[in-house]
Amino acid sequence: MEMKESNIDFVVGPIENYEDGLFGYKAAHESFVLVKDPDWSAKLAKFNAMLTDLQAGLPVTGEYKSEKPGTDADMNVYYALYYAGDCNAGSKTIAINLPNDPEIHLAVGSRKLQLRNAMEAKFNKILLPIASMLIDESQREHITFNAFFENTTFHEVSHGMGIKNTINGKGTVREALKEQYSALEEAKADIMGLYLVTRLYE
Asked: What per-residue confidence (pLDDT) applies to 47?
């Protein structure tokens, strides 16, 4: 979390818990070797300072946005050079929001790492071919890499927002939702990400 100046990043450890179908508590080990894209990273720097205001503006009652996300974290763009472990099983990760620790999210914030080369590969090789079959030709001009990048970026931003502890004081949201947490958290990030992008364009 404190390493902000290096252009090479090594992420390793027990990170995602999608493989634990019981309660979603156990995390699988994985690692990445990343190289920072300074130009694209500079474009994202301004958004980190907006997180507190974006959280305050969420369209929910106050108790669901009472926690303030930490802002001493970073948001950068990288080229992924190497995947190992869980992140190399099946489809490749295109973005990371770390750590998956609610206490650190509140105290410091989270690192939002966008993996540009993996994102471009998925956009060009998967999204565009599917869009050419399913999206009306008159709408295809709106299918751009920048739009895909923004959607992914604010999906990751959304993971760091919202409340991390239950409003009734009975532990964390992750503990309360158990095996339902991963699916609901991803759905939250999808919807909130679209909301945040819309608000920023307004």
From this structure: 83
